[in-house]
Specification:
Number of helices of chain B: 11
CATH topology of the largest domain in chain A: Rossmann fold
Oligomer: heterodimer
Strand order of the largest sheet of chain A: 6-7-8-3-9-10
Structural class of chain B: mainly alpha
Number of strands of chain B: 0
Helix content of chain B: over 70%
CATH class of the largest domain in chain A: Alpha Beta
Structural class of chain A: alpha/beta
Strand content of chain A: 25-35%
CATH superfamily of the largest domain in chain A: P-loop containing nucleotide triphosphate hydrolases
Largest sheet of chain A: 6 strands, mixed
Largest interface: A-B, 31 and 28 residues
CATH architecture of the largest domain in chain A: 3-Layer(aba) Sandwich
Shape of chain A: elongated
Number of helices of chain A: 10
Radius of gyration of chain A: 24 Å
Helix content of chain A: 25-40%
Distance between the termini of chain A: 31 Å
Distance between the termini of chain B: 30 Å
Order of helices and strands of chain B: HHHHHHHHHHH
Shape of chain B: globular
Strand content of chain B: under 5%
Number of domains of chain B: 1
């Protein structure tokens, strides 16, 4: 089943085209990352999914429910953690969570509220006023608020921005657990390592358009692959290996593109045949950051 | 149908003003008291608006209703603008609450605040004059029509994007309309032009009808007043729901 179906969503703010026809399908149970530089349209897209902003054109469905025409059903399926650290200063943590739960029609939900507070390390702050909480604690409450109605689809907009290491750990453990239990997770983050570690599939947005959409492993393999860096102090690279060069050598350092680790064997064998000695050798795995920069640099749009 | 979502939003909106009751309940009661003391002192014995009704007695229902109206407006408008500016309105916007539920919850909580303040004003000022309760049902009916101000507050809160815009709405529209609605005088004492203008002020009918419940006397027949005020309420309610449905300034 499709958890979120985004069809040709467009949004324009006067002269600025925030989203220029975005289409994505996120399946149930996925751990999906939405990446892109500031101003790429990530938050606009999330706001449209959440019903906080109306799209100019296109549609978004959550578990088959249109977020505009069938918003009540759509929003019951969706939990959203907003990027801004917002809170209502009139209430305590527990009051905040009970109210949020009540808005979703769940009047007697203390068991789950207690569990969520426990999981997010909020239990001893239950009766503290929101104003008195640190930024990290407020962030936890935002996450808890998004989960009070046990939504099958959870969207987190920069959940770890400005958050300390401990909370990041707690948060990721909890979110991973929710994903394991079948919840669909969609997140945006600036921490590419985080995305690489957590997300199975990612979409990259640039200037309001999807410029890459693939599984994390495919993306890493397809676009950049790995590279074998060889330092050959006395010889140059044999001619038949030249096409593998990523870029011209510097100081007898050769960077060879490889798509498969098995290729390393062939390269080494060829060097041995030529009697070439290797001073230094490094096998580098491309990471999401390389790919991200590569894609964002390309003049696709 | 009364849903849990609706009940929760009403509860939140009433809890919100209850937590700052000094400012939201006690302060307006004090203000009304001061009006009574000052105007009552200056004018008592000099003005008799209705035969057999002292000026202080005449003034009390007007002050009560004025407090009801102003505080009903203040509740929904200030709650909305605060939530909008601090951003925590998303907690409501992300929920499956319908437009109708949001509308009626905000308005009902406004009525609770307005009527609570009005009751407080009455409980204190009633000691200063002999009041009759000729038609208590009319008192109740017009007090409930405070829903109009709750609705106006909702519309103003949706429309305003800054605190000063809301303050302008309040200071240049709500306050003059309530003050010029015959709280302190009977509009019959006005020159013909201002009498006609007063008849175009919907707040006048609310205060006049409310006062009828006490004295059995009013400038306009209470049935006419209730008809005019109800029509006004329906128009405003439809506008408010239309705004909520369109997402005007809430879901850009």
């Amino acid at each position: 089943m499709t958890a979120i179906e985004i069809s040709n969503v467009q949004k324009r703010y006067k002269a600025l085209q925030a989203l220029g026809g975005v289409s994505l399908k996120i399946e149930e149970g996925e751990f999906f990352g939405l990446l892109g530089p500031n101003g790429a349209g990530k938050t606009t897209l999330i706001s449209i999914i959440a019903g906080l902003i109306r799209a100019d054109a296109g549609s978004v469905k959550i578990h088959g429910h249109d977020v505009v025409s069938d918003f009540r059903a759509a929003r019951r399926k969706l939990g959203v953690v907003p990027q801004e650290l917002v809170f209502d200063p009139f209430f305590t943590v527990r009051e905040t969570l009970r109210l949020q739960s009540g808005y979703f029609g769940l009047g007697n939900n203390d068991k789950w509220i207690d569990e969520v507070m426990e999981e997010l390390g909020l239990a001893n702050k239950a009766d503290t006023n929101m104003r008195a909480l640190s930024g990290g604690m407020k962030r936890r409450v935002l996450v808890a608020q998004a989960l009070v109605h046990k939504p099958p689809v959870i969207v987190l907009d920069e959940p770890t921005a400005g958050v300390d290491v401990e909370l990041r750990q707690t948060l990721w453990q909890f979110i991973t657990r929710l994903n394991r239990e079948g919840h669909t997770i969609v997140l945006t983050t600036h921490y590419l390592e985080e995305a690489q570690a957590m997300c199975k599939r990612v979409a990259m947005l640039k200037l309001g358009k999807v410029v890459a959409l693939d599984t994390m492993s495919q993306l890493i393999r397809r676009i950049s692959g790995s590279q074998l860096v060889l330092h050959l102090p006395h010889n140059s690279l044999p001619e038949e290996l030249q096409p593998l060069l990523n870029h011209p050598p510097e100081d007898n350092k050769y960077s060879l593109r490889i798509n498969d680790y098995a290729e390393v064997e062939g390269i080494l064998a060829r060097l041995r045949q030529g009697g070439i000695s290797i001073d230094e050798m490094q096998l580098q795995q491309a990471d999401l950051e390389d790919i991200f920069l590569q894609i964002m640099d390309e003049n696709i749009v | 149908m009364i849903t849990t979502g609706f009940r929760t939003l009403v509860y939140k909106e009433t809890l919100r003003f209850y937590k700052v009751a000094t400012q939201t309940i006690a302060a307006p009661i004090l203000t009304a008291m001061l009006y009574l003391l000052i105007f009552g002192h200056v004018l008592s014995g000099r003005v008799e608006v209705y035969p057999g009704v002292t000026y202080t007695a005449f003034l009390i229902p007007g002050l009560v209703m004025m407090s009801v109206l102003q505080n009903s407006f203040a509740n929904s408008s200030s709650s909305l603008i605060q939530s909008k500016i601090t951003g925590n309105l998303v907690f409501v916007l992300l929920t499956p609450l319908s437009h109708w539920e949001i509308f009626s919850a905000y308005v009902l909580a406004s009525m609770v605040r307005g009527i609570t303040v009005g009751f407080g004003v009455f409980a204190i000022t009633a000691w200063f004059a002999h009041l009759s309760f000729t038609a208590p049902l009319w008192i109740l009916v017009f007090a409930l029509l405070a829903a109009i101000l709750g609705t106006m507050g909702l519309i103003a809160g949706i429309w305003a994007e800054k605190f000063d815009q809301l303050a302008a709405f309040q200071n240049f529209l709500i306050v003059p309309l309530t003050f010029l609605a015959g709280v302190f005088y009977s509009i019959q004492s006005l020159p013909p032009f201002w009498l006609a203008v007063s008849h175009a002020n919907p707040f006048f009918y609310m205060i006049d009808g409310f006062r009828y419940g006490f004295f059995g006397q009013s400038d306009v027949n209470p049935w006419i007043s209730v008809a005019i005020v109800s029509a006004f309420l329906v128009v405003l309610a439809l506008l408010a729901i239309k705004l909520l449905r369109s997402g005007y300034r809430l879901r850009h």
